[in-house]
Amino acid sequence: MAETEGVATKVAIGISFGNSYSSIAHTTGEGRAEVIANELGDRQIPSFLSYVEGEEFHGTEAKNQLVRNPRNTVGYFRDFLGKEYVGQRRARRYKS
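Request: output the structure for the sequence above.
Response:
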């Protein structure tokens, strides 16, 4: 906690990790919640990862790779975190 004029200020951080989009927010010094924007100014970030020639893309850049590079782009994966890998064939039938 930071000390300001003898009064401790509390900060809270919240993460919304969705299947389609994710967001991160924090409380301001005035006690209001503020959603953090990414480098493109987006406050809702697509939950996508893409791998191209050794580079990793995330968010909007990764979602844009979905058409050009579908084999190496992953999206809608939140429901699979922490679960045993069952292979692509069975994973397609999974419903969240």
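The chain has one domain: 2-90.
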